[in-house]
Amino acid sequence: PSTALFNQETLQQRLQTLIEGARESWTYAIYWQSSVVDYTGASVLGWGDGYYKGEEDKGKRRTASSQSAVEQEHRKKVLRELNSLISGSSGSTDDAVDEEVTDTEWFFLVSMTQSFVNGSGLPGQAFFNSAPIWVAGTERLVGSPCERARQGQVFGLQTMVCIPSANGVVELGSTELIFQNSDLLNKVRVLFNFSN
Amino acid sequence: NGDLPIFRRKSLQRFLVKRKERLTLVTPYAC
User: What was the ipTM of the complex prediction?
Assistant: First the structure.
């Protein structure tokens, strides 16, 4: 348990090091934690931690969904409720929750509710096959058999990467088009091989 | 519901704090 707690605590620094130290412009990074769910040995990947950096060029891409007033009101309402849940005060007075919620912020938030059983989804496939998955380009995301990849494209992503590690999967996403490079794969291996 | 798993709660809290910082940077004089 102490090792697991230590790893949980350092996850955030590892994700931040990965994103802030990258040459490319990644929008977010998520660590999907692997755990065994029952006596059958079925495994599930659930939310471990995440680091959201945001887009370099905010105004660059706003999809139809983020421009709809109804959609924006819904997102702001959810953010207000989450803010109240976290701060424990009802009727949050925090101005930030009344600012526009971008597509990638929304995608990052929704990701916290997701999990992947036995090799399902992009993270599940990477973990199950112990092989990185690098999807670069709108067409490839749209054509992906994984719902999460298609969903990412709807929210403005052009690149999604899932890299398996000993205890889970590191996922990165970007609104920029970024082609596969070994530098990132090696960094993940060094940062997330928890045996070190 | 009120009982968020601890991992998510901490991630969510950090996301909201950093979002506020980002927005302050972008619109420092927002009334």
Answer: 0.84
